[in-house]
Design a protein that fits this description.
Elements: E1 2-5, E2 10-16, E3 23-27, E4 49-53, H1 70-83, E5 89-94, H2 96-107, E6 112-118, H3 127-140, H4 146-153, H5 156-159, H6 164-172, H7 176-187, H8 192-196, E7 202-207, H9 215-222, E8 229-233, H10 240-243, H11 245-258
Parallel strand pairs: 3-4, 3-5, 5-6, 6-7, 7-8
Antiparallel strand pairs: 1-2, 2-4
Helix pairs in contact: 1-2, 3-7, 4-6
Length: 262
């Protein structure tokens, strides 16, 4: 376990693979920690330098008072990658992680040579929706909404398996302040214009049964970027890397090969 102090927050991060490997950075979703990517890592090509981290208010990172701005989340990530000497990575962002990817690519294209935007969009939800979510979390915590979150995250077959308990436990054990803070960051984000100006290789991934970022919403964002590719994973919800790790890893590997990263 590693901690990096940005000056504003202390970020928990993990690096796997050789120091001279091609860097791949993973940013996870709201309500999850860096273990989100555990199912796919053994299935990726060997020799990569794999970097994962818990965003502020999540996992083992520190939890500043809410609300957070998307610019702060992007800045945290920028400082971490500079600390690790990362250049020209492939950045894989899921949900809010995909928003961080879009913002970071706009700000520091020297850090990112290609990116995967998974189950995300340039704008997710409405301000009123997120305001309601923040109030509910602040009033009662995450537990009362956990079952609804699982319905948005996973297709019905996965919700019928014992593994669902792992992910329900993960979300309810995140700090309520961190969940509310990152919800506020999503609420205030609209990246349609900056994302449309991006020019780099992009793969978009959607889950056919995603209740948080439906395929049409994901595709709308991917279509903003010339030459971007789009794939749908069938019978998957918001976290297809969990439900269908082999198919997800195959898509990532194909993309890494197509951009010459492996």
């Amino acid at each position: 376990m590693n901690i990096f102090d940005t000056g504003d927050v202390r970020l928990h991060y993990r690096v796997d693979g050789p120091d001279d490997g091609a860097p791949v950075v993973f940013a996870n979703s709201l309500g999850t920690d860096l273990r989100l990517w555990d199912p796919i890592l053994p299935l990726l090509p060997k020799g990569l330098r794999i970097i994962r981290f818990d965003k502020r208010g999540h996992g083992l990172s520190s939890c500043p008072p809410a609300p957070y701005a998307m610019g702060a989340l992007i800045g945290d990530t920028e400082k971490l990658l500079d600390h690790l000497g990362v250049k020209d990575c492939v950045f894989v962002g899921l949900s809010i992680g995909g928003m961080i990817a879009q913002g970071l690519a706009t700000k520091r294209l020297d850090l990112i040579r290609a990116m995967v935007l998974s189950n995300t969009a340039a704008k997710i939800g409405t301000k009123d929706m997120w305001a309601d979510r923040v109030r509910a979390v602040q009033d009662s915590g995450i537990e009362p909404m956990a079952d609804t979150i699982m319905e948005r995250w996973f297709a019905a077959p996965f919700r019928a398996t014992p593994e669902i308990e792992l992910w329900r436990n993960m979300v309810v054990r995140q700090p309520a302040e961190g969940y509310a803070g990152c919800s506020a960051a999503i609420s205030g984000t609209d990246f349609y214009t900056p994302t449309a100006a991006l020019r780099l290789p992009v793969l978009g991934i959607a889950g056919s049964d995603d209740g948080s970022t439906p395929p049409d919403l994901v595709r709308e964002t991917i279509d903003l970027i010339p030459g971007a590719k789009f794939k749908i994973i069938r019978k998957a919800g918001h976290l297809p890397c969990v439900e269908h790790p082999q198919e997800y890893a195959d898509l990532l590997t194909e993309f890494l090969e197509s951009v010459g990263h492996v």
